[in-house]
Amino acid sequence: MPKATPTPGSTLVSPTDHALILIDFQSQMSFATKSIDAVNLRNNAALISEAAAGFKVPTILTTVAEKSFSGPMFSEITDAFPGQKLLDRTSMNTWEDAAVIDEVNRIGKNRLVFAGLWTSVCIVGPTLSALDQGFEVYIITDACGDVSTEAHERAVERMIQAGVRPMTSLQYLLELQRDWARTETYDMTTGIAKKFGGSYGLGIIYAKTMFGASEGAHGSAPAVAAE
């Protein structure tokens, strides 16, 4: 019988064990995206970008035909990484671009997390290519989109069958924090959740405002006795 210990599983991501690769979050790519609406897509892109920037996760930002066709990367992403160079490509498969691969090798992480547009082309290509070369690969599924729900879902299924691990945007943020006793990133994490975490973020605002409550009892007010 195995012996339980209070240690995290090896497949959980942490701020220091991976690189995030954000691909083709651009205007022209979003126009044809139908599997997720633009508001949710931009919100989730902002959430993971703010999380990665806040936890100092090495992040690659790449576009395709930025000046000639696809347009600028979402400001929600570039605002989180001010001054960072965007690696513009001609290849649909990011993994076939030498400048991107140079950056992957410079960062030197064997665990990679991907998100972008479109799931069936610009995400399937690099994730399956990275798997073939021995990398451990994750995809943030609700920060990806495609021309139809069918296209997105079949792409995610294909990646999972190949060995890619799926996760969501909020899951990514909370997995980086993982323990509310980590006070140095507590305010940042809950701040991102309040802004981009949907009903979960509203719950944090409500609990803090109404009862002085916090995740992990950080700065919480004394409990009110029941009448």
From TrEMBL:
First and last residue of the signal peptide: none
CDD domains: YcaC_related (cd01012)
Domain Isochorismatase-like: start-end pairs: 19-169
Protein name, entry field: Isochorismatase family protein
Species this chain originates from: Microvirga makkahensis
